[in-house]
Amino acid sequence: MVLYPDVQRRAQAEIDLVIGRDQLPAFEDRASLPYIDAVLRETLRWEPVVPLGIPHATTSDDIYDGYFIPKGLLCLAISRDEKKYHDACRFTPERFIDDNGQLTDDNPAHYAFGMGPRICPGRYAADASLWAAIATMLATLNISLAKDDDGNAINFTPEFRTGVTRHPVTFPCSISARSEIHSELVDTLRTAM
Ligand code: HEM
């Protein structure tokens, strides 16, 4: 969201329109928030959390688009395929939205969680947690570039570190409540936990 403020604005506009500004999105609202799901899909595609898969004692290889791909690299090969995803390095949730504003049939969850008998058993929990986190954060927070003491935005180039999982290197950013109402909503959540 720090790097793609337009995505944040469009996502917040969808939430404000469908949910309003005085309550939080709930799972029942998911079908009415296609752009939020598109953000989730693009999150799984853009910088896959498990890009190389988890090594197993035995691995199987695959053919993708006519090319032989060692098993672990399949996710990355698909998610960065320029023929499938134009400008694949850009975070563009719109690629999963059709002309009618609905989600397309392409869902990176179909490869980001692996395939076959060793497919991620946590994929449904992961999908629900990601949706809840993304929807709640976008509903309540503004995320933007941090500013230095003179008020100038601190730009940065995102870096990712790969181990068993892939994650962003710490980066400067500013996170604030979208409004007093949103701040109270988060407090309500905190006391309910
Ligand atoms: C965004 C979140 C997640 C992603 C992208 C992800 C992705 C993956 C991938 C790609 C694999 C390897 C599948 C293969 O080798 O074919 C895997 C395996 C696995 N995942 Fe996840 N995972 C996520 C969250 C979770 C969660 C929340 C749990 C547990 C609640 C979980 C539990 C496991 C386990 C136990 C395996 C090993 C399965 C096996 O080897 O049989 N994962 N995951």
Short key terms for the protein model shown above:
about 190 residues, alpha+beta, Cytochrome p450, two-stranded antiparallel sheet, two-stranded antiparallel ribbon, 6 helices, about 35% helix, about 10% strand, globular, binds protoporphyrin IX containing FE, iron ion binding
Question: What does this protein structure show overall?
Answer:
The chain is of the alpha+beta class. The chain has a single domain, classed as Cytochrome P450 (Cytochrome p450, Orthogonal Bundle), CATH 1.10.630.10. Helix content is 35%, strand content 10%. The protein has six helices and six strands; from the N terminus they run ααββαααββββα. Helix 2 (34-46) packs across helix 5. The model has no long low-confidence stretch (mean pLDDT 89). Bound molecules: protoporphyrin IX containing FE. Protoporphyrin IX containing FE binds next to helix 5. Protoporphyrin IX containing FE binds at residues 49-50, 53-54, 56, 112-115, 118-122, 125-126.
In brief:
This is Cytochrome P450. It is built from 6 helices and 6 strands.
Which helices and strands, and how do they pair?
Blueprint: H1 5-18, H2 34-46, E1 62-64, E2 67-69, H3 74-79, H4 109-112, H5 123-140, E3 141-144, E4 160-162, E5 166-168, E6 174-177, H6 180-192
Antiparallel strand pairs: 1-2, 3-6, 4-5
Residues 49-50, 53-54, 56, 112-115, 118-122, 125-126 line the site of protoporphyrin IX containing FE.
